[in-house]
Amino acid sequence: MEGFRPGDKLVLATHNKGKYRENAALLAPYSLEVLSAGDLGLPEPEETGATFEENAVLKARAACEATGLPAIADDSGLAVPALNGQPGIYTARWAGTDRNFFVAMKRVHDELGDNPDRRGFFCCNLSVAWPDGRTVSFEGRVEGTLVWPIRGERGFGFDPMFQPRGYGVTFGEMEPEKKEAMSHRAVAFAQLAGALLRKP
């Protein structure tokens, strides 16, 4: 599969500054020119897919068609087995139009109630779309436990509620470099990098 070469230009199809920052940091060693859909003023497509992959492909294709450049899109979220996989693809929507993730975390806590099953996992699908119509997707996940009260002010989204398996701190308490090295996004990115990226 033909990948990217140093100096190539591509679009990260996100308006989420946290996702852009993490993905741009992961791409930095490959000497690519990375643009943001948000900075380019591209409209956000409606996420009508039923899975993380379908939504990621939809976003990547929209950015690719709008710019004529290859695009990488990330669709990710928190899945809670005791809540039948919710919020899942609706993770951002649980935070409301003002993206208040404390509200979303409190909703997860309230809906779990006294259920002893506090498992959760973050899932990330990274999809790449090219102007010739090709798409390819990579998926990563990280398992953990959902804690209450929340802890830490780092990261974004559900990070202060999520304690990854094998660690005594939440993503919200963890040093950003450590979190970014082991996150669901990092797992998916490692697969993408192995298939498509070459260091200069």
Question: What features would you describe in this structure?
Answer:
With 200 residues, the chain is α/β, with parallel strands linked by helices. It has one domain: Maf protein (Alpha-Beta Complex), CATH 3.90.950. Helix content is 32%, strand content 22%. The protein contains six helices and six strands. It has helices spanning 17-27, 52-67, 91-94, 101-112, 176-182, 184-196; strands at residues 9-12, 33-36, 71-79, 119-129, 135-146, 162-164. It is globular. The model has no long low-confidence stretch (mean pLDDT 93).
CATH fold-level assignment: Maf protein
Rounded mean pLDDT score: 93
- Runs in which pLDDT lies below 50 for 5 or more consecutive residues are none
Q: Taking strands numbered 1, 2, ... along the chain, how are they ordered across the largest sheet?
A: 2-1-3-4-5-6
The first-to-last residue Cα distance is: 18 Å
The domain count comes to 1
> Count of helices?
6
Descriptive tags:
Maf protein; 22% strand; 200 residues; 6 strands; six-stranded mixed sheet; alpha/beta
What is the topology?
Blueprint lengths: L8 E4 L4 H11 L5 E4 L15 H16 L3 E9 L11 H4 L6 H12 L6 E11 L5 E12 L15 E3 L11 H7 L1 H13 L4
Parallel strand pairs: 1-2, 1-3
Antiparallel strand pairs: 3-4, 4-5, 5-6
Q: Nutshell version of this structure?
A:
This protein is of the alpha/beta class.
